[in-house]
Design goal:
single chain; mainly beta; 16-stranded mixed β-sheet; 4-stranded antiparallel β-sheet; 30 strands; globular
Length: 487
Amino acid sequence: MADKDIFGVAETGTYSTSAPNPHVDLAGTSPTGYSIVQLFGGAMANAETATVTIRKDASNWAVYSGATYTTGSPNIVDLSTGSLLESAGSLANADTVDMLGLAPVPSLDLLSDVVISTPAIDQILKYDGTTWVNAAHSSISASAGVSFFPDDTAIIAAGAENTYPVKTLAKYPAGGVEDVDSIVLASNTVPYGEYLYDAALGSTSIDAGLWKFSFYVGVSSSVGVTSLSSNVMRVRPGTGTVSVTGTGTSRTATASSGTPFATAAIDASANVIDASWLRTPKGIYQITARTSDTEVTIATPTGYGNESTVAYSVHKKLFNVSTGEINNVASTYAGMALVEVSTAQPAYTIELTDKLGAFIFGTSDGSRTVYFSHNGTSKYTYFQTPLATRHNDLAGLQGGSATERYHLTAAQATSATSVATTSLLGLAPQATAPASGIISALAIANGETVRTDKAIFAGGILKIEAIGVAPAPGDQITGTLYVVVPE
């Protein structure tokens, strides 16, 4: 099976256990120092005959000089020097030689399930579901990533119109009084509520990487299986408004514009963990069914009063993490036990205005209560994301000391790097004056002296004498203008 990338040749030799190590001496003149690459036939006894392939060392393979010869005999050649190592017998002109199927460094694109197309620097091999292909790697945050901490500051409190509260998810621990929250279970899964980072992430992607969750938990009884889990939610502000109609515990929510309830944007489900949720000014409600891109069915408490043309957001699950079975019987802050969970997630495409939420659930196969703690200083439930810290969130950017830096808006940056024109307040020097019009300039206080050697006169000095009374906006100023031109 000759091939351009097949290395080695079949040869007959005698196996020996003598020093420097077990080797095979080829028939004829043995090339000194050549070691076995591959043996065929399993274990061998001393002096047994074997078919082998040889190499000089780890970097210099012996290779047949060709599969088909026009003249001469096939040879085994040292790749580093090109010198003849061992004759492999004579062949007639144009005879085909069968090579051993041994490729010490095969090309990737020779593998049957690999397709390499126009490779580029820094690409990696990825599985696309059918074959392995070359592609750019996903962006991964180089830093530890942004951490988020639950805080009981209410965004929307639970009540007659809202079964589950929406509370604050902060980038920094709130400290304060130690707090333990609880979820009462009865052989079911019950939502606690959502912690929401109520600010735009300002990015078009959540980086691929490792998410680390630290849960401090307890349970009322270790009998059976009880767990705590969290849905990481993509929170997308809605386009236009939403109105809710109907009565009872199942109602219709209709968006005024856009496609906020497209199949790719939500997951409608009777299962609380799998479902997406709709948030309105009154609360957050499970989306149980989808009618169209603008209409869904939501679960509501009986005390809920319908809302009309209100702002809203759609909360879609990205992934769920669970503590697994909790056996720590405790209900106080001091008794909470740490459970750490890590999950590697791909990159998630988001919009600049999207936010992040963490929806907490308790699950049990019996009648039990599950607890989790936060706040305080020692047993603070939180999670770490692969989100990179944004430049605008760094400390010391807008200070006043010599070592701190200042932000410029886009407009300020344009002024700082542009010359003054009749329509632009520019700070960069200008070589020549415009043909006509007034150049925008910074205000000059009464009594100040201004010098320029470029703005109006190339090489000259412009001197403006002070006037007695500061003019009002729009006043015409008269006076003497002195221009001193160097000799």
